[in-house]
Design brief:
Blueprint: E1 2-7, E2 10-14, E3 20-23, E4 37-39, H1 50-56, E5 62-66, E6 79-81, E7 86-89, E8 92-98, E9 114-120, E10 123-127, E11 145-149, H2 158-168, E12 172-176, H3 183-193, E13 198-199, E14 207-208
Parallel strand pairs: 3-4, 4-5, 5-6, 10-11, 11-12, 12-13
Antiparallel strand pairs: 1-2, 1-14, 2-3, 7-8, 8-9, 9-10
């Protein structure tokens, strides 16, 4: 499985079988129309940008998003999902998790925005969506790679993301939704306080697991 960070919270995951999964399409430049599966955590423009979806979508692709996003994404025959629900798409197991900010108004729990756990090739990948640290992290299954927002203001900041790492205990954490923060500072915090988790900053490389 190869994980390529496109930017912000947008990732392209390519499986060993050649399936292509996109998370939170935004500012995608290349027109490939190669998606097997598109996962949108919520309907904000920087997580479900229609111009980017147009560049990756095709008639065989599936798009899954919270039910609150269906009206925006109806062009793509989107499938609505609530936190806690599970789907299987071509052998890719998808589990929607809660994603919300308890003390902020940007991502309220009532909207039922989601993160996604995908399981394939014997590994689990968690894209947290836009969220703060939430108690539901304590109930997550074992995670190989966690893609966590760290930029603060709208989501977790470094300290909350560190708390999430210590709670989820992934083998690898990839920071995202970071704005102009210093990711090396976050990496050092994890190395010091959660040394069993490896930090991968994907600004100039891909991650293969």
């Amino acid at each position: 499985m190869k994980i390529h960070w496109i930017g912000h919270s947008c990732f392209k995951v390519t499986t060993g079988a050649g399936q292509v999964i996109y998370f939170d399409p935004y500012e995608i430049e290349e027109k490939t129309n190669d998606a097997t599966l598109v996962l949108c955590s919520h309907d904000h423009y920087d997580h479900a940008e229609e111009g980017s979806i147009d560049k990756i979508f095709n008639p065989k692709a599936k798009l899954i998003c919270p039910k609150s996003c269906l009206a925006k994404l109806k062009t793509y025959r989107a499938i609505g999902i609530d936190p806690g629900e599970k789907f299987d798409v071509g052998g890719i197991e998808i589990h929607a998790t809660p994603a919300y900010t308890p003390t902020k108004t940007f991502h309220v729990k009532a909207n039922k925005y989601v993160g996604f756990i995908i399981s394939l090739e014997g590994k689990t990948l968690f894209h947290a969506g836009d969220t703060d640290f939430i108690e539901e992290f304590k109930q997550l299954p074992p995670i190989e790679v966690a893609l966590l927002p760290v930029g603060g203001t709208y989501t977790m900041d470094f300290q909350e993301a560190l708390q999430a790492v210590k709670t989820i205990k992934p083998r690898i954490v990839v920071p995202m939704h970071a704005w102009d923060t210093n990711l090396e500072e976050f990496a050092e915090m994890v190395r010091k306080d959660a040394p069993d988790t490896r930090v991968e900053i994907l600004t100039e490389k891909d991650l293969e697991i």
